[in-house]
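Input record (one chain):
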Amino acid sequence: MTTLRSILMIIIVLFFGFTVKDNFKQDKYTQTSDNFLDTNIVKLISITDAAEYVMRFCDGEVTKAEIKFKKDIPIWKVDLLTKDRGSVKFEMSAFDKSLIRIDGPDGPFNYEIKPDDGVIPFSDAQRKAEDLTGLKTLKWNLFKNKRNWEYNFWLFVKSGKAQVGVNAETGEIVTSKKKNK
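The corresponding structure, as predicted from the sequence alone:
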């Protein structure tokens, strides 16, 4: 009788153990699938439209475009190679072509980018940062902080890096930090 009970308990544990495990997997993947948009309902910007939108900001060639998620919102990440072989990376909303961020990780920075009305061109902001420090740009970005658009520049010095922020709407210097080694 004890052996029969033991066998019955083992069968019950095995049966319910696999069922609980399978239910956990099913719940996990169901919750994950809720994060993906139903593309039959929501129409996202096409890859062609994303590439054309980015190329209106700067002359060059699109080398990569992919949809990613940023805080559960689909965005286009588009990489552009400028005519002088500089690299510029754009992030834009996949819903409405609104600009989220621009990064200039690699030079040369001999190009012009005019993001939107009310935002100063890249070359004006770069000139202000380089005139302030007397240094050349290593990399830069443009993003919207809580109040307005801002350019950030990282500039090279022998003792470390200097970072300069420029308000992209007014053109005034908002931050200037020098970091010494």
